Amino acid sequence: MSxxxxxxxxxxxxxxxxxxxxEPGDLFAYQLKVEHTARVVDLAxxxxxxxDVAADTALATLLAAQLxxxxxxxxxxxxxxxxxxxxxxxAALSVTHLLRAHMLDDAPTAIRRLVIGAVYLHxxxxxxxxxxxxxxxxxxxxxxxxxxxxxxxxxxHFSQPVPEHPEVALHVKLDPDAYTPAVLRALLDRSxxxxxxxxxxxDFKLMTVGWxxxxxxxxxxxxxxxxxxxxxxxxxxxxxxxxxxxxxxLLGDLAQRARGA
Length: 261
Known about the structure:
mainly alpha
């Protein structure tokens, strides 16, 4: 049943997104989210296997990974941005639209509840305390998988001298040297950062490397270290004493987390 349900929900996702992909002029934004979703599902599967997650929780996790960004499509169509603060909470939109589109009608009730919870919680700044263990695990793996792929998306985006699609990085201002001191201070305090403080492109880069402090699984940290994402992003930041201090701290913390220390 697990493989069949996963395949069925993937087919429903493809049917839901097809009209958006057909809209003239917006293919990049929608294709970005379709491809991102596929990679998040693959990452979630890898992490579930590495962490030896129970079968029902793993099923819910993969379904939540498939549906976590469903709301991005109506969000972009309505508001022309992926920035929640300027539009709507895309996780809440995802829940609304997965219910309207009957994405989980064939799922057992317990699995459906886990999926909806994990989707709704995937973009929270912090997870609330006291969640049931299966929901806590599913939400954490979806959050890790989401961030791991966004690292790759951001590196590709920032490699362009003048990015063609500023919506990818939430329309931050381009300046090779500027950054917001509060963003740097949050990293030194080992905090994952706050989207509301982002002004400059370097703020976005710093916030993404700071996601290390919201990584939940040792296998997620191992993947992050193996792919060298933090080193790549730091190489694109200014040669600045404060940034160099953060770099040393983060790379040291990543090595410890990847070892499970």
